[in-house]
Amino acid sequence: MIKFFQKLKAKKGFTLVELIVVIAIIGVLAAILVPTMLGYVTSSRVTSVNSTAASIKNNIDTFLTNADTAGYGMLKGVNNNDVLSITVTGGTWTVNMTNTGAFRNGNGMTWATGGTGAAAATKVGVTNPASLLAIELADLFPEVDTASLIAYVEGGKTLAVAYTADTSTALTQGTDCPNITNGAAGVGGGWTQNAAGAVVFAWDNSTAGVSSSGLIVGTAPIVALG
User: Fold this and answer.
1) CA nearest neighbour of 161 among 46, 40, 54
2) Order of all β-strands in the sheet with 146-154
3) Band of pLDDT at residue 211, cut at 50, 70 and 90
C-alpha cells in the first residue's frame, strides 16, 4: 500500500508551459481548419442551388414548349423576351412578368402580368398561363417553401435563371444576382457583358454564388468568377 501511494506521488501532470503550447497548437489548427470547413459548406450550398436553378430552367423550358404547342407560347425572335420575377412564400409560387406582348394569347388563354399557384392546385378554369406556370413549378418543387428567382426567356426558350432559397423577396439584378438584360447576347444567353467582353458579376469577387448582400444564389448556366 505504501509503495502504491509512493507511485502516485511520483507521477507528474502537465506543466503550465506544456498546457500553453498544446492550447497554442490547437488554436493554430482551428484557425486553419475552420475557414476551410466553412468554405466547404458554402461551396456545397452553391452547388445545391446551382442544381435547383438548372432544374427550374429546364422545367420552364418544357412549359414554354407545351404552351407553344397549345397555341399560347412565346413569339419567336430576339425582340420577344421577358424577365420573369418568381417568388415563393409558404410554398405558394408567384410569377410576375412585364412584357406580355412577347407571348401569344389563344386557346382560351390570356397572359397577365402576374399569376399565383400552389402545389396540388387545380388547373381547371385557369385562363392565365402565368398561373399555370406557377402551379406546375409548385407541383414539381414541393420541397421549396421559400425562394426567389429571375428567369430570362426569349423566343420560347429559357436562357438564364438565378435562384436563391434564402429569401422570398424579389432578387435585385446587379446586387443579388448577375444582370440579365432583355435582348442581351451575353455569355450563356442573357448574362450582361461589359465593354471588355467580361461577364458583369454580382458576386463578392471572392466566392462565386455568394451575392454582395450575402445570399447564396444559384445560376443556370453557371456563372463563375472572372
Assistant:
1) 54
2) 114-118, 92-96, 81-89, 146-154, 157-164, 217-220
3) confident
In sequence order, the 6+-apart residues with CB closer than 8 A to the CB of 78 are 154, 155, 183, 185
Structure confidence at residue 111 (pLDDT): 97
- pTM, two decimal places: 0.77
* Number of Cα atoms under 13 Å in the Cβ half of residue 119: 12
The three-state (H, E, C) secondary structure of the chain, written as one string: CHHHHHHHHHCCCCCHHHHHHHHHHHHHHHHHHHHHHHHHHHHHHHHHHHHHHHHHHHHHHHHHHHHHHHCCCECCCCCCEEEEEEEEECCEEEEECCCHHHECCECCECCCCEEEEECCCCCCCCCCHHHHHHHHHHHHCCCCCEEEEEEEEECCEEEEEEEECCCCCCCCECCCECCECCCCCCCCCCECECCCCCECCCECCCCCCEECCCCEEEEECCCCCC
Give the span between the Cα atoms of 130 and 127, in whole angstroms: 9
Q: How far apart are CA 146 and CA 26, in angstroms?
A: 39
Give the whole-number percent of the chain exceeding pLDDT 70: 76
Question: Average pLDDT, stretch 94-106?
Answer: 95
